[in-house]
Amino acid sequence: MTRQMPIFRTRPHRVASAALFVALIFALGENGAAQKIAGDESPFSRDHVLVRVRAGCAPVQAQGGLWTFQTQAAAPEADLGRIMQALGVSKVDRIPSEQPKNADVARALGLDRWYRVSIAPGSNALAVADLLRASWDGFEVAEVDGTGGLADIPNDTSFTTQYSLLNTGQSAGTVGADIRATNAWSITSSNPAIVIGVLDSGISPHSELAGRILPGRNIPLGTTDTTDVCGGHGTHVAGILAA
C-alpha cells in the first residue's frame, strides 16, 4: 500500500548524490533512458520495470505526484525521487495486487516486496533498471519485465495434437488457450538449474521423469507423500514441464 507523504530527505553520502543526478540528466539526452526507441523488438516491456525492495522499504507519493521510496520510520529519499521524476515514473504498484493467502510464506520469500514502476511507453527500460539499481541501496532487484518472443516448433509429429502447448484452434481447441510453451522455448528449452514447482495432484513414477523429481510436500495431508492420487493429472502436467 502506498502513502501520501509531503516531505523528503536528502542523504549526501548516498550514491544518488547531486553528481549522479547531473550525470543522469545528461544520460537522458539523445541516447538516454528516456529516449523512445521506435520499432525496437527487445524481449521486454518498455513501459515499466520491476523492482524488489529490502524489508522495511516502501513506495511513497508526495504532493504533486512525485514518486520515491523510503525506509521504515525514515523520511522519503529526495535524490531518488528526483531521479524517478527525471526517468518519467508515473506510478508505482505492488505486484501482485491481491493479498497472498499465506502472508507469512510470502513475506519469507520476499514476494510482498515487488513493485511495478511505470515509465513512459517506449523508454529504454534496461537503462532505467540499471539507473534505479545504482541510485539507491534499498533496491534488492531492479530489472526489465521479459515478454518472450517467437520460437522454433519441435519436430515431434504429435506436437500439433498438444493443444495445451500451442493452441491454434485444432480439434476441441480454442486459439490461444495454452501455456505459451513456444514463447518459453524461445528463452530456453533446457536448464538443469531451473526448479519448477507443480501444484497439482502429485506425480507418479515415470521413466521420462526419472532423476528429475525433487522431494515435495503433500499440502492437504501435511506429509511428504506426493504420489499422484487424481487419475494422473499431476503426472501429465509434470510431463509437459519436464519430460
Overall description:
By secondary structure, this protein is α+β, with helices and mostly antiparallel strands. The protein folds into three domains: 3-143, no CATH class; 149-191, no CATH class; 195-243, no CATH class. The protein contains six helices and seven strands; from the N terminus they run E-H-E-E-E-H-E-H-E-H-E-H-H. The strands form two sheets. The chain has a four-stranded antiparallel sheet with strand order 5-6-2-7, with helices on one face. A hairpin with a 5-residue loop joins strand 3 and strand 4 (67-71). Helix 1 (18-27) runs parallel beside helix 2. It is globular and about 60 Å long. Residues 1-19 have low confidence and may be disordered.
Helix count, DSSP H or I runs of 4 or more residues: 6
Integer-rounded radius of gyration: 23 Å
- Would you identify the regions where 5 or more consecutive residues have pLDDT less than 50? 1-19
What's the average pLDDT? Answer: 79
**Class derived from helix and strand content:** alpha+beta
Following the backbone from N to C, one meets helices and strands in this order, namely EHEEEHEHEHEHH
Number of strands: 7
End-to-end Cα distance: 41 Å
Largest sheet, described in full? 4 strands, antiparallel
Number of domains: 3
Strand content: 5-15%
Provide the helix percentage.
10-25%
Strand order of the largest sheet: 5-6-2-7
Overall, the morphology is: globular
